[in-house]
Amino acid sequence: MLTPPDPLPYRHVLTLPATGQAVRVARETGEQVLAQWGVGAREPCHDPALLILSELVANSVRHAAVLSPQVTVVFAGGTDAFAFGVHDRHPYRPALFASAGVAPGRGLATVMELTCGLGGSAVVRGDADEGGKSIWITLPLRRGPR
To answer: Average of pLDDT values for 33-49?
Structure first.
């Protein structure tokens, strides 16, 4: 279900009700996780990562809550990368790279612009039972060793 794209030594899992408050809590938790792992506000991916996270959680709340009463965020990190996956139990898998200008909102297009602009990657992974999906974002860290 929620396996990060590559093994990273640090992990934090957050499961929330799929309500509007989930966006704020996920973002605040993301800030705390980054700080705990030594990723400061001067890191180029810091603020964009929090914006991307907020957008993905908001999308799950907005579009998937009818079938998914919870949204789960898994944070994974290491010396060179910060990754996070946002999971819900709605079976629809958005086409990340076709999102620019296609949907009513620009959320996924913004996610992809920020991710690619930072040299990161994004992938949608379906659950084994096809009943849900995770969107994983991996961003490079420019900082030196811890």
So the answer is: 96
